[in-house]
Each structure stands twice: as C-alpha cells, then as structure tokens.
Amino acid sequence: MKKILFLFVFILLATAAFSQKKGESLIKGDYEIYDAIGYKRVILFTKEVNGKTMCGFASGYLEVLVEPIYEDATCRSYEGMWCVKKNGKWGAYDETIRTQTVECLYDWIGYWKKENGVIKVQVELNGRRFWIDNKGNRL
C-alpha cells in the first residue's frame, strides 16, 4: 500500500506543470522531462517556444539551469558532455560543471570519447573535420 501511495504521489508531482524562470522549480508550466538520468543529476527537458520544441537543462531538484535555448541536445557521454545545437550549429554543454564549454560553431559534431585522459570529439567546420577537447580547443 505504501508503494502504491508513493507511486501515486510521484506520478502526481511528475505530471505537474513546470516553471519558466532560471532557478525556479520546474513544477509549474509546460515542460517535458526528456532524460532524467544525468551524470550529476542534470536533466534534459523540452519546451515549446514560438512554435518550436527547444531543449534546456535542469538540476536533479528540478530547477532550471539553462532555459530552453537549444534546438537539439544529444550524445551525452559518460563524462557528462552533451552535444547541443543552437542557430543551426553544434557545440557542447558540460553537465559536470553545468555550463556550455564549446560554442555552437560547428556544422557537425560526433560522439565524445576519452583517450589518454583527454575528453574529445570530432567536429566539422566548413567541410573540414578535426578533433577538439571538451573546452573547444583544437587538438
């Protein structure tokens, strides 16, 4: 019976609407949690903005960390790196420090990997592919 009550309360809270201001609880408004399993409990969520579905990030406490400003967010790695797309270009968000570390400059971005202690990803810019680290430095 306790499990059923807990499940009911959880579902009730999870289906509540979400807030729209950075730092406020998400439990007011029109957000949809997309990925609730994060390295440091950072959650990817989506929200309809001007007729487009946009992505943002929230804490495990359901506080907005990054407003829904990204067109897409994908490829979270075990190191906590996300590929994020803004204005048609790709960059990176690091959930371990909860900030965007690579500007959205690239036409394409691959999957993150760790090699010899360096977290890196292959990117493409103006038809040329090369590697960058998790801070955006060319390798």
Provide a descriptive summary of the structure in words.
- With 139 residues, the protein is mainly beta.
- The chain has one domain (2-104).
- Helices cover 9% and strands 49% of the residues.
- The chain has 1 helix and 12 strands.
- The chain has one helix at 2-14; strands spanning 31-35, 43-49, 52-58, 64-70, 72-74, 81-86, 89-94, 99-106, 108-109, 113-115, 118-125, 128-133.
- A hairpin with a 2-residue loop joins strand 2 and strand 3.
- The longest helix is centred in the N-terminal third of the chain and has 13 residues, at 2-14.
- Mean pLDDT is 77; it is low at 5-28 and 35-39.
SS element count, helices = 1
Strand order of the largest sheet: 1-2-3-4
Approximately how much beta-strand content do the residues carry?
over 45%
The computed structural class is mainly beta
* Mean pLDDT over the full residue set: 77
Runs in which pLDDT lies below 50 for 5 or more consecutive residues are 5-28, 35-39
The total number of structural domains is 1
Q: What is the terminal separation in angstroms?
A: 57 Å
What is the topological layout?
Elements lengths: L1 H13 L16 E5 L7 E7 L2 E7 L5 E7 L1 E3 L6 E6 L2 E6 L4 E8 L1 E2 L3 E3 L2 E8 L2 E6 L6
Antiparallel strand pairs: 1-2, 2-3, 3-4, 5-6, 6-7, 7-8, 9-11, 10-11, 11-12
Defining key terms:
139 residues; mainly beta; four-stranded antiparallel beta sheet; 49% strand
